[in-house]
Amino acid sequence: MPKYQKKGKKELLYELLNDTDRKSVFSIISDIFILTLYHKSFPKHYFSRYLFKKGKTNIKDYFSNNFLYYKLKPFFNEHSVRDVVENKLYFNFYYSQFNIALPKVLMYNHRKMFVKGNVNFEITSAAEFKKQLEDIFEQNPSYNSLFIKRTYGSYGGDQVFKITPPQLATDHELIDKLYSEVIKSGFLFQETVKQHPELDKLNPSCINTIRFDTFIDKEGKVEIMSAYLRMSTSNKHVDNIASGGCLVSIGLQSGKLKKEGYPGFSANGIVVHTFHPVTKTVFEGYSIPYFSEAKEMVLRAASLMPGLRLVGWDMAISESGPVLIEGNSDYNMIGNDLAEGGFLTNATFRKMLMEANLLRVPL
Ligand SMILES: Nc1ncnc2c1ncn2[C@@H]1O[C@H](COP(=O)(O)OP(=O)(O)OP(=O)(O)O)[C@@H](O)[C@H]1O
Ligand SMILES: [Mg+2]
């Protein structure tokens, strides 16, 4: 899947100068001056966090690009158990024993060796590969598509493919490409999760997942740190921001969306959405179905792997309740910084930084 295109610096500057919703040039320069002194380096994050917009006054609550958050992963997450979430296959095997709803894995492979049910076999041509996929659709007539995802080492929706029976029947080029990609490493073949119709009203092109992050504190108490919803703003089958999605913060108590949707400054410039650009559904006040059940599920998932104290989870909401898509032991916190209006306003985030001795350095 092609990554989204970044805009050029000149184009971004032009947009910024013409933005009717920005602070005055004087205020922007003054903010940048203050933050440069505060962080002891040029605050590039000023733009990616949209701090040039009117009303963004708490500029020191956002962390800068110097923030050492790569230190958090080894501090809180035991290296030897990371693969429970980082490897999508192990993730599925591990969590399926706890009666947590997960997308069904129908087949997986390591290079040319495939496993389906409890049978393993070798595939040596695109034609054989196609036949296996056709068999899956034949055995599961209710499926309109399949998800094919890299088992480990993918990022941001990059190696996530969706295939439909008509594509399988007619798009030989696509099958050839998919086959040559799949046999390079390990992939899993998963049922497509059908999301709750309410979420289709927001964006029907993909499942719009909730990104929860959880923290287990020193005393072993499991907490949800924050939650935001991600969705594609075009017709993509993945919701990742890196693949052109947008994120909207969710009130943890209310389960309702906040006002603004951030699509990413470097690719989309000054645009901040208050409604979905295709469906026109307004974000503010939109109520996420099964939100309490989703919170309960993510807290349980976090508590079942105590070796991972800091995890970012992707959760879908189906017609019958939440479905856990994946966990990330090393997730990008820029989304949280944006969604929370400065992650440093978040008490759990601060508690975590304090334990890791990171609250004393300028962020
Ligand atoms: N089984 C599925 N059914 C429907 N949509 C799915 C399914 N699996 C993934 N998706 C969509 O694709 C997106 C990306 O999938 P996933 O989170 O598994 O991979 P990723 O984010 O690329 O992985 P990583 O975090 O390892 O980089 C999901 O957020 C969701 O929108
Ligand atoms: Mg993901």
Detailed description of the structure:
The protein is an alpha+beta fold and 363 residues long. The chain folds into 2 domains: 194 residues, ATP-grasp fold, B domain (D-amino Acid Aminotransferase, Chain A, domain 1, 2-Layer Sandwich), CATH 3.30.470.20; 87 residues, Dna Ligase, domain 1, CATH 3.30.1490. The chain is built from 14 helices and 12 strands. The strands form 2 sheets. A 6-stranded antiparallel β-sheet has the order 3-2-1-6-4-5. A hairpin with a 2-residue loop joins β1 and β2. The two termini are 34 Å apart. 36% of the residues are buried. The model has no long low-confidence stretch (mean pLDDT 95). The chain binds adenosine-5'-triphosphate and magnesium ion. Magnesium ion binds next to loops.
Q: Tally the helices: what do you get?
A: 14
The CATH topology of the largest domain turns out to be D-amino Acid Aminotransferase, Chain A, domain 1
E-strand count: 12
What percent strand? Answer: 15-25%
Average pLDDT works out at: 95
User: What gap, in angstroms, lies between the N and C termini?
Assistant: 34 Å
Task: Tell me the overall shape.
Answer: globular
User: Which structural class fits the helix and strand makeup?
Assistant: alpha+beta
The value of Rg in angstroms is 21 Å
Low-pLDDT windows of residues: none
Fraction of residues in helix: 25-40%
The distinct bound ligands, ions and cofactors come out as: adenosine-5'-triphosphate, magnesium ion
The profile of the biggest β sheet is:
6 strands, antiparallel
Return the string of H and E elements: HHHHHHEEEHEEHHEHEEEEHHEEHH
Number of domains: 2
What is the CATH level 1 assignment of the largest domain? Answer: Alpha Beta
CATH architecture of the largest domain: 2-Layer Sandwich
| Strand arrangement in the largest pleated sheet | 3-2-1-6-4-5
What's the CATH H-level superfamily name of the largest domain?
A: ATP-grasp fold, B domain
